[in-house]
Amino acid sequence: MSMAKGSNVPVQAPSVRVELGWGSGPGVPDADASALLLGATGKVRSDADFVFYNQATHASGAVRHEGKRSAGGGVTDSLVIDLARVEPAIETVVLAASSDGGSFGKVPGLHIRVVDAAGGAEIARYDSADATVETAFVLGELYRRQGAWKFRAVGQGYSSGLEGLATDYGISVDEPQQAPPAPASAQPSVQAPAPSPAPAPPVAPPAAPPVAAPAPVSPPPPAAAPAQPVRLTKVTLTKEAPSVSLTKQGGTSGALRVNLNWEVRKQFKGWASKLGRAVAMHADLDLDLCALFELADGRKGVVQALGNAFGALHQPPYILLDGDDRTGAVSTGENLTVNLDHSQELKRLVIFVTIYEGARSFADLNATVTLTPQHGAPIDFSLDECTVPSTVCALALITNNGGELTVKREARYLVPERGVSPQRTIDYAYGWGMNWTPGRK
After folding, report:
1. Are 102 and 159 in contact (CB under 8 A)?
2. Whole domain around residue 39: which residue ranges?
3. Model-level pTM?
């Protein structure tokens, strides 16, 4: 049962998952969950106390942004909060939502749920039913009372978006710099210089005893670099704007995390008809995130679960596949990491996905790709609907062209020829020219 605004309930679970949820559909703005950790002043101690899509984990490890999932016509964006690890100086964890591409008045079914992270039992739920022009909301908060945690339904809206909400709690936001104003007069006046007085005759300086050179003075220690404000920007690639420069965003070092999240629109076992073709789509769909790489020295290869070719992060190819997920869940999903500290040794990289089992094509699949550089804005895009019998899809192409790293949305469904593997199909399409042999997990 949904809580009334202002009401509260005790939270006895040591760790909770907070789910921001809403209904998906054409024209519905996207939304994002975030958390702010407040001290006794009701403000954050620093920008590090803000957990959101660009800063996914708190330094204490107590709060973590997990990401989005789509299922059953709805979307959830989740945070996991280990209440036992929240620092004693933190009295309140504000649970907020921000919209991207429109106001919350256009977002149906907006709600927040608090569930036991271990067992999944619902502890609290608040449904927001009065949104209009707001682009950010504080939907609830977890707070301490006499050593115990409680959840309060808040429902306070902001028309100034995530930036206005964040700055209200003491966050420094990275805003575009304005150009300095132009001078008032377009034609500055010019005055003739005054005549110089006649020079005085030279005078010899008085003799002076020699002076010892001063002792060298040590330079002062360098001042600490000022804290960088948080960046709220993110990049969504589309057909009209398919590429972005990581270099121009400052995202050329640290780890670049690639995540594939999916759901099956029609989850059933058996046969489904789509555009007159029979398409097998099973609920136990298993997709594999993979990457073809070419290094600057000419070496080529593949990173994939098939054949246990998981790669390596701190030695060539500087690409690591974390694991093999069969659900599409962001919390455990298929994640591939690229070590951009060695970006000068990478020439090009094709990130692609294959169907290992559970389906004969990508039809009825709803998938989202997110690339999150350690420095710079996250990059995401969705795959178009598949209308061909494709078992392999090129997701993104990362290239190093003269030191500039560029990410390009491919979203390209390919149809292998009879007897040709999905990997070899990608190879042919992008001109890798490798020799392939059968493999298994």
Report:
1. no
2. 8-168
3. 0.58
